[in-house]
Amino acid sequence: MQPLVNRVVNSKLITLKLDELVPVVETVEFDLADHLWKGLALKEKDFRAAIKAYDWAHLSGKRLCVFCSADAIIPQWAYMLVGSAAAPFATHVAIGTPTEADQAAFALAAEKLDVTQYADQMVVLKGCTDGRTVGPKAYATLAFRLSPVVKSLMYGEPCSTVPIYKRK
């Protein structure tokens, strides 16, 4: 009887795990809907007072996600006021829900990744993550950036991949 051989471990595949590109950071949500006048609009004077009264210190070492869950038109200065007030405390301010912030962070990491380390390699972009939503932009960006340098690019798990690109 032949011994079992793990062909994945013995292969030359390099698995790129997108969830390892962006560290997990505790997230605090800031919903602008909580500050709307009659649920419709922001009143600058009232909003400035709310921003001043808010306890920003609890954001230390955390990411702040700013969004509005109500169907309201939010002026750009409102996001700027929140970002400015959070700056001394938060590690990052993202516009959108935590899921949208994760997707933006993964896309930015994909744009900044040094792809030269994968030159002439067989790369698998891992499909499963640690529960955060990577989103299609990060995967498309990596496919765009890796295809000119890798020998082959696949998606999924090393034991079950979908071929994306193979150099001729």
Structural descriptors:
168 residues, alpha/beta, 2 domains, four-stranded mixed beta sheet, three-stranded parallel beta sheet, elongated
Describe this structure in words.
The protein contains 5 helices and 7 strands. It is α/β, with parallel strands linked by helices and 168 residues long. It folds into 2 domains: 7-23 and 103-166; 27-90, no CATH class. The strands form 2 sheets. A 4-stranded mixed beta sheet has the order 1-5-6-7, covered by helices on one side. A 3-stranded parallel beta sheet has the order 2-3-4, sandwiched between helices. β6 and β7 form a beta hairpin. α2 packs parallel to α3 and α4 runs parallel beside α5. The longest helix is centred in the middle third of the chain and has 15 residues, at 98-112. The protein is elongated. The chain starts with 6 loop residues before the first helix and ends with a strand.
* Number of DSSP E strands: 7
End-to-end CA span = 38 Å
Number of domains: 2
Order of helices and strands: HEEHEHEHEHEE
The helix count comes to: 5
With strands numbered from the N-terminus, the spatial order across the biggest sheet is 1-5-6-7
Arithmetic mean of pLDDT: 91
Helix coverage percent: 25-40%
Low-confidence stretches: none
User: What's the main sheet like?
Assistant: 4 strands, mixed
Helix vs. strand class: alpha/beta
Query: What is the CA-based Rg, rounded?
Result: 22 Å
Choose one word for the global shape: elongated
